[in-house]
């Protein structure tokens, strides 16, 4: 499902854009959840709690224009795809400063919007698997292959990356445990640790060593199932 936000101070253009997105959703059989806003303040406030995958953003709005809103949004979210809506192409150059995906000239046509959304869909489909983490400074994308393990620390979770960096999420451990429990590459080897199996270098019955050299305990009750999960994944990747 795509989470899409549309921000435009014109009720007519807001309605037209929303109807076009719903039409694209039905034609492509891609579920969408659309949130609409009439000003940048409302959009930013909502995005802090429920970040959108794609944002259609009118540039020319009273008091707080779309370009200003995009610059603020980019301080905490580098990954949302921004598509500007504008009646003039003069903002095309400035749109690159906030890494906009594209811009649509008003009045927008369905064919043009369809093409832009198709491009977004292709990018999403070709993108490696990832998590979107809520951190104290905003949202951050982590690709699975970058993660060595996640560790519960009080009410927060620290992700250790293969680069040696750490990223702290304000979400609780059980949130990620639930989200990743069905993924064959992640395994809960201890009450406080989730590991990404492809980045395990070697292990025994009581502990494992990640590729960067971090030692992680394996709880006795998880030892057998960890071994089974590890070799099942390695066998799958080999063949």
Can you describe what's shown?
There is one protein chain. The protein is of the alpha/beta class and 239 residues long. The protein folds into 2 domains: 2-126, 3-Layer(aba) Sandwich (Rossmann fold); 130-238, Beta Barrel (OB fold (Dihydrolipoamide Acetyltransferase, E2P)). Helix content is 35%, strand content 32%. It is built from 7 helices and 15 strands. The chain has helices spanning 11-28, 40-49, 66-74, 92-97, 110-126, 173-180, 223-238, and strands spanning 2-7, 32-37, 54-58, 81-86, 102-105, 130-135, 138-143, 147-153, 156-161, 166-169, 186-190, 193-196, 200-203, 207-210, 215-217. A 5-stranded parallel beta sheet has the order 2-1-3-4-5, with helices on both faces. A hairpin with a 4-residue loop joins β9 (156-161) and β10. α1 crosses α5 (110-126) and α2 (40-49) packs parallel to α3 (66-74). The longest helix has 18 residues, at 11-28. The radius of gyration is 21 Å and the shape is elongated. The two termini are 31 Å apart.
Descriptors:
Rossmann fold, five-stranded parallel sheet, alpha/beta, 2 domains, 239 residues, OB fold (Dihydrolipoamide Acetyltransferase, E2P), 15 strands
Short description:
GO terms for molecular function: DNA binding; phosphorelay response regulator activity. Helices cover 35% and strands 32% of the residues. The chain is of the alpha/beta class and 239 residues long.
Helix content: 25-40%
Any idea what the radius of gyration is? 21 Å
Strand segment count: 15
N to C succession of SSEs: EHEHEHEHEHEEEEEHEEEEEH
Taken from the alpha-carbon principal axes, the silhouette is elongated
Reported by name, the CATH topology of the largest domain is Rossmann fold
What is the CATH class designation of the largest domain? Alpha Beta
Structural class: alpha/beta
- Give the number of domains: 2
Keywords: DNA-binding, Phosphoprotein
Modified residues (4-aspartylphosphate): 58
Domain HTH LytTR-type: 131-232
GO molecular function, one term: phosphorelay response regulator activity
